[in-house]
């Protein structure tokens, strides 16, 4: 008997484990065991508590649906908080940082197995790819419905031209208000005049090549980096990155450059082939300092860093 299909509006949560391929190559059995434990101990309880339904899993990917955008975002934040605690018991190299995407759209439901399909599901997966490891990205439709809740803060992630999507999609990164406040240094209590710290006009020049001699180069200006609240991304995808390295071993969104105070840092974004600073592989989601005179390796591309 053929299964019947129905359509409905749903808030879709799609998640994917950053750096999964590399983790499986290093410790396949242990990674699989930790992933299953995270699904059972973190994902399923958080989704059920938020009033949602776990639709299914496929490898390191997970899909859930909710009746409302508010419930979906609340559950996504709960999941990331639970995962942070879950990771405390794991070795640093085995910690699991999920990218989570949330979208509100129409889905098709297979009434026989209760699976969901459609453009809404596909778009949630595309939005998920724009989230930071351990972070949450949402569509504008979700932001517009949830933004009145004061405990959430949304940071504009810009418009993106996503694969197999005809129109540009605006993405927002979401977190709890107290997390955003904790990340923003408070002004000294004795200060009565607002001041803006101006960094010197510093430019770092990145130049290097891959193992076959193909050359790559780009410049990073500190004043522009300072104005980018989410940092600036290096990767293969021209529509998602400020600095593009069109190389097969470089991930679509490979690493992020940041300014913490006046400290220049680089953070791996769960890339497939890893990021190294001065020959040492860095862990995804943990920014490390990068100085002029140092070396940055992204996949097979090694770049020297110097002050221009």
Provide the fold topology.
Elements: E1 5-17, H1 20-26, H2 28-49, E2 53-58, E3 61-66, H3 69-87, E4 98-110, E5 116-117, H4 119-128, E6 136-139, H5 140-146, E7 152-160, E8 169-176, H6 177-183, E9 203-209, E10 215-221, H7 222-227, E11 232-235, E12 243-244, E13 255-260, E14 263-268, E15 275-277, E16 280-281, E17 288-289, E18 295-298, E19 301-307
Parallel strand pairs: 4-6, 11-12
Antiparallel strand pairs: 1-3, 1-4, 2-3, 4-5, 6-8, 7-8, 9-10, 9-19, 11-13, 13-14, 14-17, 15-16, 15-18, 18-19
CATH C-level class of the largest domain = Alpha Beta
CATH architecture of the largest domain: 2-Layer Sandwich
Number of helices: 7
Quote the average pLDDT.
Answer: 85
* Distance from first to last alpha carbon: 69 Å
Our estimate of the beta-strand percent is: 35-45%
Shape: globular
| CATH overall fold name of the largest domain | Alpha-Beta Plaits
- Name the poorly predicted regions: 184-200
Cα radius of gyration in angstroms = 20 Å
Helix content: 25-40%
In terms of structural class, how would the helical and strand content be classed?
alpha+beta
Largest sheet: 8 strands, mixed
Order of helices and strands: EHHEEHEEHEHEEHEEHEEEEEEEEE
- Domains, number: 2
Number of beta-strand segments: 19
Walk me through what this model shows:
This protein has 308 residues and is an alpha+beta fold. The protein folds into 2 domains: 5-183, 2-Layer Sandwich (Alpha-Beta Plaits), CATH 3.30.70; 203-307, Tumour Suppressor Smad4 (Sandwich). Helices cover 25% and strands 36% of the residues. The protein contains 7 helices and 19 strands. The strands form 3 sheets. Strands 1, 2, 3, 4, 5, 6, 7 and 8 form an 8-stranded mixed beta sheet that branches. Helix 1 (20-26) crosses helix 2 (28-49) and helix 2 packs antiparallel against helix 3 (69-87). The radius of gyration is 20 Å and the shape is globular. The termini are far apart. Mean pLDDT is 85; it is low at 184-200.
